[in-house]
TrEMBL record:
Protein name: DNA-binding response OmpR family regulator
Response regulatory domain mapped to chain residues: 17-128
Residues recorded with modification 4-aspartylphosphate: 64
Keywords tagged on the record: DNA-binding, Phosphoprotein, Transcription, Transcription regulation, Two-component regulatory system
Subcellular location per the Swiss-Prot or TrEMBL entry: Cytoplasm
Record has Electron transport as a keyword: no
Amino acid sequence: MTYAAAVPAAAYDPGVQLLLVEDDAGVAAALVETLEGAGWGVTHCRRGDDGLHQVAGADLVVLDLGLPDMDGLDFLRTLRRASTVPVLVLTARDGDGATVLGLRAGADDYLVKPVGQAVLVARVHALLRRSRVEDTAREGAATLAWGGLALDLGARRATRDGAEVALTATELDVLEALAAQPGEAVSREAVQLHVWGTPALGRSRSLDFFVASLRSKLGPDLPLHTVRGFGYRLGG
């Protein structure tokens, strides 16, 4: 399988970082060459668990479903509880059934190997363009307030009745992750991805500790609700 660079780098998106999760070294090397040739930075991981620890800085994920440590569909399901980053599945699993399973698990696009390099690059570019429009639409206010409590997201500063509340950097990160979607349920995995760079469940007890600490420090003005079996909701 050959994926030679097909499009000049200047035609696409400088500064974009892709995450490639692919266990076959030869295929991965060819894909990295093609994607870097189109002007994107690429981080490569062989294992799904490693990919989950690298996804925080990615603008798009290119995912093979046949991974050595987990099924790619499980990777997708875990990622989708934490992030809306675009995912392009690139796999040998063919047929309508496999495609439907991949899309239902959270893929934004699905390609079956082998695929022409120009098609691959064009599909990645289309997903990045769509993601950029959605990110712009989600931009919102930088300050939130509930009763005597105010949170300035830009300054990373919380005050109660005008006096600053001493929060640690991690407490601010947790609060910021929840405040980015006021009134909406935010999954535990999404908070963990924002704070620690991975949606993996190993941080669950740490997250419980910091949520309890926020409730203690900020008091009853903080409408931080537990959403059973999912995560938390700030406000609403």
